[in-house]
């Protein structure tokens, strides 16, 4: 039976841009065909269990503001109740996927054996609900940052017992993800970083982190997990410096430890901003190296210097993100997870529903704008023209010659190039036509 938590809210329908119904989709039509594929199949939306159901509305300066029937989240009865209400939200929204950390779906027991027992119990329960609803698990992951045992990291911890506890925890979460048919498994660094170099052996910690991730890949193949292993870049918060700083840093790390063929990246808009990048930059770097796996869609408040995890509301930013995703062929096992939370003043159930509606609409608008730009071909033409000089045999031959040979050619031919306009404003005006 329905819990009553979403009482009075009916299944969200697509009503179009002219509708003034705040509880309807205005742009997200799951069956609309966008460059040959259903919109739902392009976007592959997922609800984040942690922000939507586990977060209690606190911030660094104040405690919980939400009152939910499954609080306090300290026993299996409430864990099952939380799952019941989660699947009610999935049904209301029509989102095909969801994501979780182990600590989101089961209560913390204080020891590994009981954590394992409760994780297995709740994943059996979630599995039964998935069979009825048809929802899928986009990815699972382990929370190795909240409990005090993780205060100095997990795989990078100076205490080998913490490393062992982390390995056991990740194994249990991979088993749970595999059991539920998850399409990816994510390792978010959490506290894999340092607060001060004065007590940190960087080489040892990075080597341990590299070996840990190799163990994860080895175990994936042992159990026959067909999903993708993902790591998630984040530059700071909670640690002063995270080892998985940004896409380029992660790719260098994966190549150093021989993991570039087995691990891809889960990218978040908020983390890109914290690293001093745009979201489209991080996606473009990942796709250029064939490393894009999935995305966490949210935004930061640009007037705040931390990870505010707000639902997206900026169509131009979202459009450019999906432009590079579509250029790379779209998602494979990945999707669009709303790693976003409602504001701590938005205390009602309807606020949770409305936030997802808005996020889904913004992503739909961004996807359609991205598809229109791809079909128009304007940006591709800009690139083709700007780099056209490299298509000549003489230019191509430079890349296999030497500095001596190139220098002689410059002298002999009197090469003295004039600057060429990058036409940035014209290109930006072009993009604005679509968004």
Please give the structural blueprint.
Layout: E1 33-34, E2 37-38, H1 39-43, E3 45-48, H2 49-54, H3 76-93, E4 97-101, H4 102-105, H5 112-133, E5 136-141, H6 160-179, E6 184-188, E7 193-194, H7 202-223, E8 228-232, E9 241-242, H8 247-256, E10 263-268, H9 269-274, H10 279-288, E11 292-296, H11 315-327, E12 336-338, H12 349-376, H13 378-386, H14 393-398, H15 403-413, H16 424-432
Parallel strand pairs: 3-4, 3-12, 4-5, 6-8, 8-10, 10-11, 11-12
Antiparallel strand pairs: 1-2, 7-9
Helix pairs in contact: 3-5, 5-6, 6-7, 10-11, 11-12
Binding site for Mg(2+) 2: 268, 271, 307, 309
Subcellular location: Cytoplasm
Organism: Ruegeria conchae
Describe the model.
Its cofactor is Mg(2+). By secondary structure, this protein is an alpha/beta fold. The chain has two domains: 344 residues, Divalent-metal-dependent TIM barrel enzymes (TIM Barrel, Alpha-Beta Barrel), CATH 3.20.20.150; 44 residues, no CATH class. It is 46% helix and 11% strand. Helix 11 crosses helix 12. It is globular and about 80 Å long.
């Amino acid at each position: 039976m329905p819990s009553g938590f979403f009482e009075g809210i009916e299944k969200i329908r697509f009503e179009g841009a002219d509708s003034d119904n705040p509880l309807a989709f205005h742009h997200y039509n799951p069956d609309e065909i966008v460059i040959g594929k259903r919109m739902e199949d392009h976007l592959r939306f997922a609800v984040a269990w942690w922000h939507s159901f586990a977060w209690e509305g606190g911030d660094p300066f104040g405690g919980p503001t939400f009152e939910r029937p499954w609080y306090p989240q300290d026993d299996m009865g409430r864990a099952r109740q939380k799952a019941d209400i989660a699947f009610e939200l999935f049904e209301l929204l029509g989102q095909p996927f969801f994501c979780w950390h182990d600590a989101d779906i089961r209560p913390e027991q204080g020891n590994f054996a009981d954590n394992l027992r409760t994780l297995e119990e709740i994943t059996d329960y979630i599995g039964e609900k998935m069979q009825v609803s048809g929802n899928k698990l986009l990815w699972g992951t382990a929370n190795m940052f909240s409990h005090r045992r993780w205060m100095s990291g997990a795989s990078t911890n100076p205490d080998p017992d913490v490393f062992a506890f982390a390995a056991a925890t990740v194994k249990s979460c991979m088993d749970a993800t595999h059991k539920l048919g998850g399409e990816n498994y994510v390792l978010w660094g959490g506290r894999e970083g340092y607060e001060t170099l004065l007590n940190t052996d960087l080489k040892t910690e990075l080597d341990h982190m590299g070996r840990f991730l190799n163990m994860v890949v080895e175990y994936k193949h042992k159990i026959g997990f067909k999903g993708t292993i993902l790591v998630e870049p984040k530059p700071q918060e909670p640690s002063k410096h995270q080892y998985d700083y940004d896409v380029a840093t992660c790719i260098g790390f994966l190549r150093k430890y021989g993991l570039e063929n087995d691990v891809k990246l889960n990218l978040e808009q908020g983390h890109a901003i914290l690293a001093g990048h745009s979201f489209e930059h991080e996606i473009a770097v990942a796709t250029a190296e064939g490393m894009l796996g999935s995305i966490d869609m949210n935004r930061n408040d640009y007037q705040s210097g931390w990870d505010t995890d707000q639902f997206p509301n900026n169509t131009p930013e979202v459009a450019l993100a999906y432009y590079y995703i579509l250029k790379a062929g779209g998602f494979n096992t990945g999707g669009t997870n709303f790693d976003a939370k409602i504001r701590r003043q938005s205390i009602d159930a309807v606020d949770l529903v409305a936030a997802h509606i808005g996020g889904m609409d913004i992503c739909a608008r961004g996807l359609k704008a991205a598809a229109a730009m791809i079909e128009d071909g304007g940006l591709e033409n800009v690139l083709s023209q700007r780099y056209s000089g490299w298509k000549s045999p003489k230019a191509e031959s430079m890349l296999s010659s030497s500095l001596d040979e190139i220098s002689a050619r410059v002298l002999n031919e009197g090469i003295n190039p004039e600057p060429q306009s990058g036409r940035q404003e014209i290109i930006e005006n072009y993009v604005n036509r679509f968004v």
